[in-house]
Design brief:
The protein contains two helices and six strands. With 135 residues, it is an alpha+beta fold. The longest helix has 18 residues.
């Protein structure tokens, strides 16, 4: 090797199982999950409110975040089942992230006219109840 040539690697070789596992994790995490209303089901948009927890703020000295709102789109036969499925989905996501216990309530339920959605919902808007007198 000449003195002016770099010893930095140009590429890395990944074993097939490593690559497959990485793609599977990426797909499961970032690809939106579609929702279909089959048979007598309808699509419902459910807004869920979470409280009863404390997440430390990224800014030192700030009060912890203690509430959030999130949306889920679920296929269900009726409003009761839609609420149950949405609460279950949010609770599963919360536990998967290892954040401890949370109190969940349904804030609003709307029936959608579509039979198919490309996303089931996700993400959340977090807040501090101490800001501006709370929510």
């Amino acid at each position: 090797m000449a003195e002016d040539e770099s010893r930095n690697p140009i590429a890395w070789v990944m074993a097939p199982t490593t690559w497959r596992g990485a793609v599977h994790r990426l797909m499961r995490r970032y690809v939106p999950r579609p929702v279909f209303a089959l048979g007598d089901q309808d699509l419902y948009l459910v807004i869920v409110h979470g409280s009863g927890f404390a997440l430390e703020s990224s800014q030192p000295g700030e009060a912890p975040l203690d509430g959030f709102y999130t949306t889920r789109v679920v296929a269900a036969l009726d409003v009761r089942e839609a609420k149950q499925r949405a609460l279950s989905a949010v609770e599963t996501d919360w536990q998967r992230q290892g954040r401890g216990s949370v109190t969940l309530d349904v804030n609003e339920v709307r029936i959608l006219t579509e039979r198919y959605r490309t996303r089931s919902g996700g993400g959340a808007i977090f807040y501090r109840s101490s800001d501006d007198g709370g929510v």
